[in-house]
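Retro notes - structure team

What went well: the batch runner handled both jobs without manual restarts.
What didn't: labels got mixed up in the shared folder, which is why I'm recording both outputs here explicitly, each with its sequence directly above its tokens.

Job 1
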Amino acid sequence: MSAQHRLDARGLICPLPVLKARKILLNLAPGDVLTVSVTDAHAPKDFALFCAESGHILKSVESKGEATDVTVERGQK
């Protein structure tokens, strides 16, 4: 069963949310899931590009009022 993790990156501007998430993902097992709360409007696109380049899976992007939750599954790499 995969583990669920959270990162609060609200108030940070890109690329900081992606960089902080990358550091956490490096320490997770493949299949583990990280949900990142962001307020930077560009963050979802940055996460999509990051996942495409790094082999992680962008599971969802969900608006939560002023914030957006970006959920990423740790890839096999």
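Job 2
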Amino acid sequence: MSGQRPLDILGRSVDKNVLVTLKGGKGIRGKLVGFDQHMNLVLADAEEIGENDEPCKSLGSVIVRGDNVIIISPPPT
């Protein structure tokens, strides 16, 4: 992954499921629909993730503000 920029990796993750870890320890999993240069994310079919990566609440479509994001885990390549 050397030489790759974060926005390039996100661009390849559009229309794929991603796992997002937020400040405060919450996690959200969903299909990445779009993003911007501030790492604001649009997720479809999103669900809040509980302990052991088990879904605990369906959220539908959400916008996640970039300054709340700690980690975005793209799908394996």
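One thing worth noting from job 2: Residues 6-73 form a domain with the SH3 type barrels. fold (CATH 2.30.30.100).
We'll revisit the folder naming next retro.
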